[in-house]
From TrEMBL:
Domain (Electron transfer flavoprotein alpha subunit C-terminal) ranges: 178-257
Signal peptide segment: none
Protein's UniProt name: Unannotated protein
Single GO term (MF): electron transfer activity
PANTHER family: ELECTRON TRANSFER FLAVOPROTEIN ALPHA, ELECTRON TRANSFER FLAVOPROTEIN SUBUNIT ALPHA, MITOCHONDRIAL
GO biological process: fatty acid beta-oxidation using acyl-CoA dehydrogenase
NCBIfam families hit by this protein: mft_etfA (NF038209)
Length: 306
């Protein structure tokens, strides 16, 4: 089994370290700035192949063929690039695809279904393609220095021979980007009083170039989509900054937070878990603080409008 890690400008995607660990330390790192990306992944890798090339299915297949591992299972992190590349690889190689796996071996794949409410186990009889969910497996560090090789002379994309080519990679929109990769998240919980407050929260988040996240109770009420839910039954995140409005900090939520560099919490309960975790704890009504913040930032609000 081999992990394929697509990198851009020397930045490895979220979950790259976990994916390499799942493949027992064997990885193809492909893209731009692969040597720089490896600096943050060397402690989990055993055998690494670096390929400075365009990130595409044909380049990946050629690289894996050159290193003699085409007959093995290929796994990728379930990032936007990973989720995009996996079906192309599966189609090109004629293999089964298991998306959103939480555990992968050569003969067993466990896939999370229905928002984490069920797990399906599969027993593939041949090599396959899979994407590994981020933030679930954890990492196993390796003390030895990894063996590093380079893969050269990979093909470039040719519009006459491929059905899809990448024209450009646009910077992410914080309001719609994959929550697992968001560097700044503003979260809302049961302390916010209505669905209108979450529209306001989304607008404030956009003004701060941040993404909106919520707790499970909010998605259960239908005030936000499940893709915005942070926690064990939602998305596992690891932002630099997390601002929590009206979130008490139940373990189902906080276990999905990763290790934020900075946490700010606004809550009337000074002793709730989220306030204890915070670097800055503001004892106040989250609705009032959000309203004031929206006014200061000149964010439009429909809360209380007739």
């Amino acid at each position: 089994m081999i992990a394929v890690i697509p990198v851009r400008d020397g930045v490895a995607p979220a979950g790259a370290d976990e994916t390499i660990c799942e493949a027992s330390g064997h990885a193809l790192i492909i893209g731009s700035g692969t040597s720089q990306a490896l600096e943050n992944l060397a402690n989990v890798a055993r055998n690494v192949w670096l390929a400075e090339a365009e990130v595409g299915a044909s380049q990946i297949i050629t690289a894996i063929t050159q290193i003699g591992r085409l007959n093995e299972t290929i796994i990728l992190p379930a990032t936007p690039d990973g989720r995009d590349l996996a079906p192309h690889l599966a189609h090109a190689l004629g293999r089964s695809l298991f998306a959103g796996a939480i555990s992968i071996t050569d003969n067993k794949v466990s896939v999370s279904l229905h928002g984490g409410l069920a797990i399906a186990d599969y027993s593939p009889l041949a090599p396959f393609i899979a994407t590994l969910q981020i933030g679930i497996r954890g990492v196993d560090t390796v003390s030895a220095v990894p063996t590093i090789s380079r893969v050269e002379n990979l093909p470039t994309a040719n519009a006459a021979h491929v059905s899809v080519i990448s024209v450009a990679v646009m910077p992410p929109d914080a309001s719609t980007m994959d929550l697992s990769e968001a560097p700044r998240i503003i979260g809302g919980g049961a302390g916010l009083e209505s669905g209108e407050r979450f529209v306001q929260l989304q607008n404030v988040a956009a003004a701060l170039d941040a993404s909106m996240g919520v707790t499970r109770v909010i998605t259960d009420r239908g005030w936000a989509d499940h893709e915005r839910q942070i926690g064990t039954t939602g998305v596992i995140v690891d932002p630099d900054l997390y601002i929590a409005f009206g979130i008490s900090g139940a373990v189902q939520h906080t276990s999905g937070l990763g290790q934020p560099e900075h946490i700010i919490s606004v809550n009337t309960d000074a002793h709730c878990p989220m306030m204890q975790m915070a670097d800055l704890a503001i004892v106040a009504d989250a609705n009032a603080v959000l309203e004031q913040l929206a006014q200061l930032m000149h964010v439009e609000s429909q809360v209380g409008a007739a």
